[in-house]
Known about the structure:
Mean pLDDT: 79
Number of helices: 16
Number of strands: 18
Strand order of the largest sheet: 3-4-5-6-7-8-9-11-13-14-15-16-17-18
Radius of gyration: 27 Å
Low-confidence stretches: 1-25, 27-38, 181-191
Helix content: 25-40%
Strand content: 15-25%
Amino acid sequence: MCDIPWRQVTMTVGFGVRTADYVIPPTLRRFHIPQTSVMYFPFEVWSHIFCLLPNESPMQLMRVSRAWRDIANATPQLWTGLHICHPHQFVDSAGLLRRLEKSGELPLDVLIKVPIGFTELWPTLALLRDHVRRFRILNIDVPTYDMVDTILTLIALSADLSNGNPAPLLEELRIAIDNMVDTEDMPASEEQPYFEHAFHPSPRLRNLTVSSLRVPPPLSKLLSTVVALTIISGPDDISLSVESTLDTIAAIPHLESLKYSGYEVFSYQDTHSLDYPRVVSLPHLEVANVTVPGRGLDILQCLRAPTLRSVRLDGWRTEDYAERWNDDDYTDVSASLRRLPQRAPCIQKLDLHCIDFLRAETYNWLFNQNDFAHLEELRIEGSTITDTAFTQISTRGPRLRRLELRGCENITGSALVAYIDARKLSGNDFRLSVSRCPGVGDEHLAQLSCLVTVEES
């Protein structure tokens, strides 16, 4: 077994960045243990292996041996993930400083998760705000709205009034509020300048996740490069209008993916009517995922999206509201679904998650209409859909290539067999996936697998 040619090593990392030359520490030159050949791996191999470990691993690696400590210290990629989640991490500025120094000048992935009741943020933010230029991902998870304001204001303190606070590497910004309370006396988004001052310019920002009460205003320069927007609404956002959210969405010229996750269980405005005066054109939108009923569905119905390919309507909620799924809500979702293809004619994938329609004819219509002319994949989960939707088949209907059924207790395998026979589907052009549907037994799946491709659940 030959000796390792210990020498200076130049390591190449992501983003096309080449680190400085690192001299292999002297201790590694004595890194010869005949009992196991794995110990003869060169420095680059060990360094790469260490980088595959979880973010919490560097300090554990440092305790194994002097050789491993030298490898860890000479591998700046190990120190680029900054997860600040516990009280002692917020006050241990010396530990954070060491980690920042060890990471060199590489891009940083930062998670700030503030414990409930904790307020000592200054030591940590005082160090981080000088490294905004290195942020690649910033994930802020806090218990209250005013905590968001505090963090972003402290970061913005380092901003130059004329040049801003450049974040040239920032690709993803996520700001989430766990508790979503204390909404009284909150300023409107137009009165919150810290977004602009904290991360501007940010020419590579593509993914933005914010609370519905902390959405950047329409004139925000942050929105110019965003392609994926997620809005998280809380139970106290009743005062927020659909119009204000639409104003922000309309200001994102290159938006490709929109997700709205809310608690609401009723529609705020009658936007499912096509004569609603507000229409927002999103020529690049491809994916939409909204909770229904509620503001998410209201927003979706105001969008003209000629390139929209995938739609998910999510009816699941963490709490069981007594007023949910009343007649008005059912009518709204059904009417919205029927009108959706008129402004988004190219939908190929439709996902209905935990949505119940009062009238069975809604599902019958879904399987026997040509409005979704390009629909190829349909996914239904947690629904009251019955065999009627599959047995009353006409010659019309979308040419599905894939059907996925999850947790649909009122359908049977015989109805699925009848549907496949009526549509003359074959395994070459149709795939079926069934899970947690008690009416579809093994004998039905065996029969179905002889007709089409049945995917494993």
